[in-house]
């Protein structure tokens, strides 16, 4: 494959680039010499990574080895001669080292539950029985011949409920029966139990009945395959047989409950992550949500849909992913590349890229592959940041077997496309391509594309809302047709809160419910203010408002980010002590509504409504004539006691 060394070296910012044709074989000594020096050493080959690591170990190399693939992703292409900027970008991106993902310890003692029809489940259980502790629960014994040796627990029953995660599953069965030990020609039920619970580390589900756990793929440790596919069954057996011992599971997401917009005061707001999680690993927890990290499969829909950033994907972290994006697109532009198309894909899409390179025209020179852990984790913050960093178009590479699991991506893609079109960049800047026909996919990548925004070059700092703000500001500043306000469809995570100020009493219930502090008060005076860039349109303010005077308007407002005062009033002072304790409109409204009530028929009674809490109590006690307002008792002295004694004893009084 051709290498544009000058273009790559120019973008690399310094010496250290060496080109080789046969580094893994005849030029292995050159690698060994380079591997002796400490520091990062990047090898542009992933196929021979084991060879290079072995050579470094034999020679006691001190280098921190990294590997990346520029052959299938850039060199094997009909446009390889123009791929110099792309190769430079891929090499620079590979040098960005992400923070290691936090991991959870998982232990499996080899307890396996095999479930399914008797013929398939029993055969699978026999294969596993020599290595694992197997419990087999079949749908029914039927005409199954009894095993010669009962080397695993066998029951018949119907699955009623299941819970847990890898290393700690619990499956409850109903109508359970055990086989008679003396069964002759076929298994005969002996004892009948109402229910039975099986605790296990791994579940192998070969049943044709509904799955025990939702999701595609389901949670780790739950292996479900088609019992009519012998190859799939054998692959599942190999997989289950290896699930023994101690290992680590990535913590795919973390939750910041402080900014979660799920609920406040028993009023439900955002439920996007709850509705989208395919493994049911997310559940409500008071005002926020919680994630069962061991049940989470890393699908990423929660990260894609969360408007506040309360749920953050960690494989890799958002900051590391954005930094890779910045370096990739920035290096491509610096090396002279134009109109980059960002190809988002996960590990499944990597195979499609390799096949296109080996058996087709390969990726065009302006198509930059960008690998993420799960395609389902991509969201509008990633798309808009990519556009701000210079991407002219974004294509998501999806495999056909994932149909039905990526439906949630549609809203984010449509939102980002609407924003780009609304700013004058034109439509169809994003596409979700299902790779069913490789030739059609290759043609889709080769479509001409108009230039996008210039490379911004900023580092993304802060959370999701900060990422949105930085990207939108850059895109608006360089927009072909900038606008001040861009209307959006309902459900968009941007917009403003509209308040009918005539009906608002400044009770500030909405302020207490707002998870992002878009709505806030003023501690010095009755005031309600609003910051539009912080609003996620969760609707908690609408549901909380007792006067029902709040509504939502989805839109994007560009320009200066200032806090807008929605309503403010002069405070109402207590008519007795002058303490400010409420708004004038609220007191006037209460007085107006209660003026005709029998309990407030006199002016004195109405004045109680115009007093602060302390003065109101004092006035009520005075009106009741209670002795609790008597002056405090006088301090008694010795003279008082002597006077009392003299009054009781006249003779002693005469002596004195």
Automatic annotation (TrEMBL):
UniProt domain 4Fe-4S ferredoxin-type: residue ranges: 287-316, 495-524, 526-555
A GO MF term: metal ion binding
Keyword 4Fe-4S (UniProt): yes
Keyword match Iron-sulfur: yes
Key words, A-Z: 4Fe-4S, Iron, Iron-sulfur, Metal-binding
Region named Disordered: 626-656
InterPro entries: 4Fe4S_Fe-S-bd (IPR017896), 4Fe4S_Fe_S_CS (IPR017900), Fe-S_Ferredoxin (IPR050572)
A Pfam family per the record: Fer4_9
Residue spans of biased composition, Basic and acidic residues class: 636-656
PANTHER family attached to this UniProt entry: ADENYLYLSULFATE REDUCTASE, BETA SUBUNIT, BLR5484 PROTEIN
Protein's UniProt name: Iron-sulfur cluster-binding protein
